[in-house]
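Lab notebook, bench 4. The sequencing result for the construct came back, and we need a structural model before the next group meeting so we can plan mutations. Quick request posted to the team channel:

Model the 3D structure of this chain.
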Amino acid sequence: MFRLHRYKCNVENVLSGQMNNITESHFIRSIPTVCMCISNLLSEIIIVRDGFLSLPTWFSRDFIDDVISSVCV
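Done. Here's the predicted structure in token form:
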């Protein structure tokens, strides 16, 4: 009942399996935009670091690691 009231849904949502979608959308709405942007940036930098995405050769591995450290602070 607490979840139903907190997430403004009904028993039909729970029984139909939509509860996860409702809680996920509530969670996403509660995160500040700047945090979402930083997490997306960090995700892309990690993809570059791991070699799944490439940048011009003047971006060294050390530079990418420094950027990751700066974003995480």
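The two ends are 39 Å apart (CA to CA).
Will bring this to the meeting.
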